[in-house]
Request: fold
Amino acid sequence: MKFLQNTPRFVFFTGKGGVGKTSVACATAIILAREGKKVLLVSTDPASNVGQVFGVTVGNVVTAIPEVPGLSALEIDPGQAADGYRERILGPIRGHVPEAELASIAESLSGSCTTEIASFDEFTNLLADESSYGEYDHIVFDTAPTGHTIRLLQLPGSWTDFLAAGKGDPSCLGPLAGLEKHKLVYAKAVQVLTDPARTRLVLVSRAQTSSLREIERTYRELNQIGIGGGYVVINGVLPSAAGEEELALAVRDRESAAIAAIPETVASLPRDVLDLKPGNMVGILALESLLTNAPVTGVLAEAVVDAGVEDAPLAALVDEAEKGGHGLVMCMGKGGVGKTTVAAAIAIALAKRGHAVHLTTTDPAAHLTETLHGSIPGLTVSRIDPGAAIQEYRNHVMATKGRSLDAEGRAALAEDLMSPCTDEVAVFRQFSKMVQESRRHFVVIDTAPTGHTLLLLDATGSYHREIARQAGDTMGFVTPLMRLQDPALTKVILVTLAETTPVLEAEELQEDLERAGIHPWAWVVNNSIAAAHPQSPFLRGRAASEIQQIAKVRTLTDRVALIPLLPEEPVGEEKLSALAAVVPQLAV
Reply:
């Protein structure tokens, strides 16, 4: 393995959820420990399952892995870290500001940006504190900080002094407000991260176009702040052992095409390709097989697959959603799970049943608009350009809120406006108009705002008032939160894959929405091998590994649709039309 050659002390694994970062990180830690090194494996993933993988309880204290001498593990709980981080900011002002304002500030600190920074605040000591962690030859991180987080830590100045001088308020800086602590430690940590002799970045991907684009984006972002010399690991590539049935051949062709078209920025990096294994990467033996050619045993019996999957077509959800005659359908989920495809399939199905439908998407690949626009009677397709919406919003805030700040304050505000939380607010301005339309006909939205965004906008009682606080004046929008909370008008569909991390992330998204008073209406499990009822022993072993996750989804909702892994990707009107009518049949 190229990424394991001359391994430096710190190794960071990063990539989209569900690509196998944890498995690759755990396997790496085992190999290094087997070489006689003393290794600490650290997870900052909110959906961490390191303890489950090793079969031991791992928490926020260093825990030895009994079966691997020299290996210890540590899970930094992002929730606990974020709670402590928020309290350091809110504690001093509690009782000194109105409750409504305190609630607004608290909500501004409840998003993914704050969690990310709080986690980094916790593990900077692992990078910089030799007295506590100098005994380890290698520290392996599952989930690396993004370039956004590191740029925040590089910004000059004292945020405490900045706020104390009356140049701003905590809510204008959002998660930046607590960065005064351990500035020297932060500086040393950033220095370590940008030194290739001490730190290695490993970009983990699947052989999928969207996943490969994500590692390119991450690599570009980290390059901007001095982290380079990355390695690429393409995980889970379907091997020849999967057989020659139509499904296996089609998937292999699709993966080969994606790898051949890998984005130029990362195409020249050292690359390793890992075969998909027939079972889950749980346990020492399974993990050791991931980076070697060792066989994996213990594939579940075929009967378990067929008994664990009931046919649940997407068409059944369309039947039920159609009954109201109009309304809003929001498809939500993490990147790469197929929510754009699901949204398009639902919109086409409703239009072909004679309804007026507006499908809007933030899909950066505009092929959806090009493929469907004007081709289906009753269907209107539009694309929200996130880049344009975000830039417009940033310009407005800098020209209004930033107008009264000095150079240091403007630099801080500009960086805060680069956060994903701000991106959501900007795009939500476009979405709000679509919510109004749903009172007259069907509106299907791909990539809807999260519960954090909705609460952030509604924390002071109205969207209008929140935007006025952030931007310094009004924008003329009224919050649609009450309409989104109305189950008769709005149906939120969570899209996921039948894998541990995507399901955990979707469950967290459901909890996030419920904080805003929105209960997801249904879940869609996409690209399920189990729902395809494959014939080869290899694919049936993979299908068996999905059963537990599908069962978990059924405990989280009373409406589930299963979309099988298809021989051909559902692209274009014909294949998207068929998707909402797919009823998986047992193989003969």
Remarks:
- The chain has 28 helices and 15 strands.
- The mean pLDDT is 79.
